[in-house]
Write a structure and sequence with these properties.
By secondary structure, the chain is of the alpha/beta class. The protein is built from four helices and six strands; from the N terminus they run ββααββαβαβ.
């Protein structure tokens, strides 16, 4: 299945859940996650800097959109160190995200991948790698999965 890249800005993007990969060695978010962090009054940065969520592989954190985003819930999926990021880490992040989505019973999910960490990579190919992990571990009825186009990221 070909991943769906959407160019809709975060300020208007509606989904049951927004998912972002977060790195152990980059406590202050970049890319689209930086915009979410700004909208949530640095909730992502504070969570990371406090040590409560450091972005270790397989870890997750769930934040409330607090009426500041059209999406009520924002999930962070630990992806390990940015310097060690490889497609396999995105597959594992997809599996972790699928378990979270199944538990939350989401129908529409939007994913912001860390395209900035793999410059020169094909966004559709990276989204496909994440999607493969998601589908392999996902619930029987897969939700609608959309990926934020890197062209709209700050």
């Amino acid at each position: 299945m070909t991943p769906l890249l959407v160019a809709e800005p975060l300020e208007t993007l509606r989904a049951d859940l927004l998912i972002f990969c977060h790195f152990e060695d980059i406590p202050v978010p970049r890319g689209s996650l930086a915009l979410v962090d700004w909208a949530l009054n640095a909730a992502v940065s504070r969570l990371s800097l406090s040590g409560r969520f450091v972005g270790a592989p397989g870890s997750t954190a769930l934040l409330n959109g607090a009426g500041k985003l059209p999406t009520e819930r924002v999930a962070l999926v630990g992806t390990g160190r940015a310097a060690d990021l490889r497609p396999g880490a995105l597959t594992e992040a997809g599996r972790t995200a699928a378990a979270l989505v199944a538990g939350l019973r989401c129908q529409e999910v939007a994913v912001g991948l860390p395209f900035h960490a793999l410059p020169g990579s094909d966004p559709a190919a990276l989204a496909e790698v994440f999607q493969q992990g998601f589908a392999a571990a996902g619930p029987p009825a897969l939700p609608s999965l959309r990926f934020l186009d890197p062209a709209v990221a700050p």
